[in-house]
Amino acid sequence: MSKLETNTIDTVSGTSTLQVGSTNTSTITLGVSGDTINVPSGVTIANSGTATGFGGNNTPAFLANLSGNFTLTDQSAVKVQFNNEIFDVGSCYDPSSNYRFTVPSGEGGKYFVYTQLVVSASGSVVHRSDVKIYKNGSEFTSSVGFDSNNTQFAVWCSWSGVIVLNASDYLEVYNYNDVSSGTPVARSSSMQSIFGAYKIIE
Questions:
Q1: What is the C-alpha R_g of the chain?
Q2: Are 95 and 85 in contact, with CB atoms under 8 Å apart?
Q3: Does residue 159 sit within a domain?
Q4: Where are the beta strands (DSSP E) in the chain?
Q5: Of 85, 81, 42, residue with least CA distance to 196
Q6: Is the dihedral of CA 28, 33, 35, 41 positive or negative?
Q7: Is 21 among the domain residues?
Q8: Using one digit for the tens of pLDDT, what is the confidence trace for 67-98?
């Protein structure tokens, strides 16, 4: 095994190519297919440029909220129509018709999913508010918010966790509530009600 000791590797003056262990390319190349580039323990890699091909991105990813208070139904499961996209990397969320997150082709894997709802009913007491995650049209999991003292005019509930999804699987958010009177709504102000997800890098 031979050893190269140097302080700087650069392309040859007047050219755009430096070859190290591979065929000529327009980049600086280290090694060939199957080789292992070893970075010893204690070595720090300092990058001041653009790094590509390392790790991955937490995408597809989206976050949506409500453009206004969304009307619910007392003692009935209703799909919450998050109609305002904060961001949508990968065009994976539908904010206008199905109000669902759909895993794009080739993007199956583990996803961190999160949602939050704040439900009120025009000054009436909210006894209970459940947030439900539906997967492919059926309830998958839920979280329950209770007012044990029967005095709260708004109840906050949320769910977050990891869900294993395949391409074309879809998720939606539903709410079930129980109010003393009036019309319950999911509140929109200050990002009180949201729905989002992102793919986990593995």
A1: 26
A2: yes
A3: yes
A4: 18-20, 28-30, 61-65, 70-71, 78-79, 84-89, 101-102, 109-120, 126-135, 138-146, 154-165, 170-179, 185-186, 194-199
A5: 85
A6: positive
A7: no
A8: 999 999 999 999 999 999 999 999 999 999 99
Whether 176 is covered by a domain: the verdict is yes
Q: Can you give the CATH number for the domain in which 136 is found?
A: 2.60.120.40
Q: Distance between CA 124 and CA 89 in Å, rounded? A: 39
Q: How many domains, in total, are found in the chain?
A: 1
Report pTM: 0.75
Retrieve residue 84's tokens.
Answer: 């305002």
CA distances from 5 to 9, 30, 46, 113, 175 (A): 10, 15, 19, 49, 65
- Residue 156 pLDDT > 90: no
